[in-house]
């Protein structure tokens, strides 16, 4: 763990990744100068009796708290980036329900939910889409627009792949530490 105001969340994330000497850490250019974290950053919760949090889980939690994402960029590189940066990239595919190689496009788009999702089922030989890539959905009404690849799953014995897409969350500013003490000022009189 690190004390408040001693490091940035990016530097702490890099420390978690670099615990494994063979891993590389990637952050988009120009983001290294982010503000210092005003709260304590930790791996795990010492007060919890649950299973201990490992570095990968901690990195995901810290990223989620800020509207960032952590994912494997290459077999030896961990990317740590705001989702808004990923969404600003040019889409690598444009998807319509009748696109070649696409079997189905299903979306869950509800203004009451915190995250909207699109699930694309496609033939794997035509879909090589890395996690964190931007995909453009067209011709699907409310789901039209840019989406981020968040997950992919494929059976070893099937040509179909299921690609999960999500919308980018906004970047969340650094949290201010919460105070456990309570003070009250009464104006115009004594207390």
Largest sheet: 6 strands, mixed
- Poorly predicted regions are 179-191
Q: How many β-strand stretches? A: 9
Report the average pLDDT across residues.
79
What string, H for helix and E for strand, traces the elements in order?
A: HEHEEHEEEEEE
Structural class: alpha+beta
User: What is the first-to-last residue Cα distance?
Assistant: 40 Å
Task: Please provide a written account of the structure.
The protein contains three helices and nine strands; from the N terminus they run H-E-H-E-E-H-E-E-E-E-E-E. With 191 residues, the chain is an alpha+beta fold. A six-stranded mixed beta sheet has the order 4-7-8-9-6-5. The chain has a three-stranded mixed beta sheet with strand order 1-3-2. A hairpin with a 7-residue loop joins strand 7 and strand 8 (145-154). Helix 1 runs antiparallel to helix 2 (55-64). The chain starts with 8 loop residues before the first helix and ends in a 25-residue tail after the last strand.
């Amino acid at each position: 763990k690190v004390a408040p105001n001693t490091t940035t969340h990016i530097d702490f994330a890099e420390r978690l990744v670099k615990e494994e000497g063979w891993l590389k850490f990637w952050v988009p250019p120009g983001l290294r100068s982010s503000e210092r974290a005003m709260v304590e950053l930790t791996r795990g919760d010492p007060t919890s009796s649950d299973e201990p949090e490992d570095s990968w889980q901690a990195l995901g939690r810290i990223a989620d708290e800020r509207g960032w994402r952590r994912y494997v960029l290459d077999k030896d590189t961990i990317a740590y980036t705001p989702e808004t940066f990923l969404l600003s990239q040019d889409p690598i595919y444009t998807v319509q329900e009748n696109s070649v190689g696409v079997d189905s496009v299903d979306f869950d788009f509800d203004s009451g939910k915190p995250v909207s999702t699109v699930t694309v089922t496609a033939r794997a030989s035509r879909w090589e889409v890395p996690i964190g890539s931007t995909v453009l959905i067209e011709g699907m009404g409310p789901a039209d627009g840019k989406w981020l690849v968040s997950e992919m799953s494929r059976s070893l014995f099937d040509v179909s792949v299921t690609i999960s897409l999500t919308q980018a969350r906004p970047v969340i500013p650094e949290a201010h530490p919460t105070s456990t003490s309570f003070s009250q000022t009464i104006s115009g009189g004594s207390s």
